[in-house]
């Protein structure tokens, strides 16, 4: 059984610190992700590999601008999205078709929700188990405080206090990552 692959953000942080093996692993993983990303948007377009290489070069040139306190996926996919938009502008003569395709790309961006889910999971992982469970059941699953109170044996007031503190802790972590 092999060890799991490290997350992309961990590889990027290691690469920024000078770890060449981590950088090679990062570029290899990103290349595969980019091929899939561009192929879903362009089909069998021959320019997919060119876009992959252009994006990897852009990532290499901008790697020092990545802030380890911010989500890597958002930074990475923003670069890929800009490269795709530049490609569409360069290859389409009809400006309205480019605008339509760019709108389609923006509307069909499944990476942002996936990144948000990962970020939410990281924030939840930083909470004590009881607080994590309360946030999940009340804020994510939509159960009422009364339902959670009955199931947990805690008073509704205690549930609200734990929920408030958990959300405040998560908000503080988000605020600190943006500074």
TrEMBL record:
Matches recorded under SUPFAM superfamilies: Sigma2 domain of RNA polymerase sigma factors (SSF88946), Sigma3 and sigma4 domains of RNA polymerase sigma factors (SSF88659)
RNA polymerase sigma factor 70 region 4 type domain boundaries: 118-170
Any Pfam family: Sigma70_r4_2
Domain of life: Bacteria
UniProt keyword annotation of Transcription regulation present: yes
GO annotation, biological process: DNA-templated transcription initiation
Matching InterPro entries: RNA_pol_sigma-70-like, RNA_pol_sigma-70_dom, RNA_pol_sigma70_r2, RNA_pol_sigma70_r4_t2, RNA_pol_sigma_r2, RNA_pol_sigma_r3/r4-like, WH-like_DNA-bd_sf
Domain RNA polymerase sigma-70 region, residue spans: 28-93
A GO molecular-function descriptor: sigma factor activity
Family per similarity comment: Belongs to the sigma-70 factor family. ECF subfamily.
PANTHER family: ECF RNA POLYMERASE SIGMA FACTOR SIGD (PTHR43133:SF58), RNA POLYMERASE ECF-TYPE SIGMA FACTO (PTHR43133)
Protein name: RNA polymerase, sigma-24 subunit, ECF subfamily
Record organism: Xanthobacter autotrophicus (strain ATCC BAA-1158 / Py2)
């Amino acid at each position: 059984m092999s060890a799991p692959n490290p997350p992309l953000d961990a590889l990027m942080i290691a690469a920024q610190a000078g770890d060449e093996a981590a950088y090679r692993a990062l570029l290899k993983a990103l290349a595969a992700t980019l091929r899939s990303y561009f192929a879903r948007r362009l089909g069998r377009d021959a320019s997919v590999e060119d876009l992959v290489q252009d994006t990897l070069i852009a990532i290499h040139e901008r790697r020092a601008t990545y802030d380890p306190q911010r989500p890597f996926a958002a930074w990475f996919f923003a670069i890929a999205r800009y490269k795709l938009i530049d490609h569409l502008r360069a290859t389409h003569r009809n400006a309205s078709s480019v605008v339509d395709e760019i709108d389609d790309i923006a509307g069909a961006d499944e990476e942002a929700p996936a990144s948000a889910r990962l970020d939410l999971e990281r924030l939840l992982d930083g909470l004590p188990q009881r607080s994590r469970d309360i946030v999940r059941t009340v804020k994510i699953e939509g159960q009422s405080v009364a339902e959670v109170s009955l199931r947990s044996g805690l008073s509704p007031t205690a549930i609200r206090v734990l929920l408030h503190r958990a959300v405040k802790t998560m908000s503080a972590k988000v605020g600190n990552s943006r500074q």
